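task queued by scheduler; priority normal; single chain, no ligands, no partner chains; default sampling; output format set to structure tokens
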Amino acid sequence: MSNSVNVRPPRPQDQFLSDFLNSTDSSSESDVSLNQELSSSVTDIVLEQRIIDALRDIYDPEIPVNIYDLGLIYSVDIDDEKVVRLEMTLTTPGCPVAQTFPGTVECAVRCVEGVADAHVNLVWDPPWTKEKMTEDALLMLGLL
């Protein structure tokens, strides 16, 4: 009686599985990198939403609408160190709070969890118009 082991020839799916298993070892570093990038992107989206929520808590002193929906915030940029740079305007250059309002906005954004620092750049070009207002703001003011 002989002890023999039946060895079947490799099948294409066996080779595929072998190739796949070997490739997952080498791609695990890229998978980790991709997961970190996705996590960072999600974190940035959550942080941006928190910043927008904070901006929606700040109201224009002359119009009973928050500055975000009023269209006074032109851009919100978050760098890798979580420093936020905002570009904003006011309804008119002669606004009585033109000197102090940007500081108020900076303080509110700095208080958002996850923000390292905030800087506001007050711009007059392009000038603010009611077309920059959100539909919600227009509805609140009875303009729709």
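post-processing summary
- The chain has one domain: 38-140.
- The radius of gyration is 27 Å.
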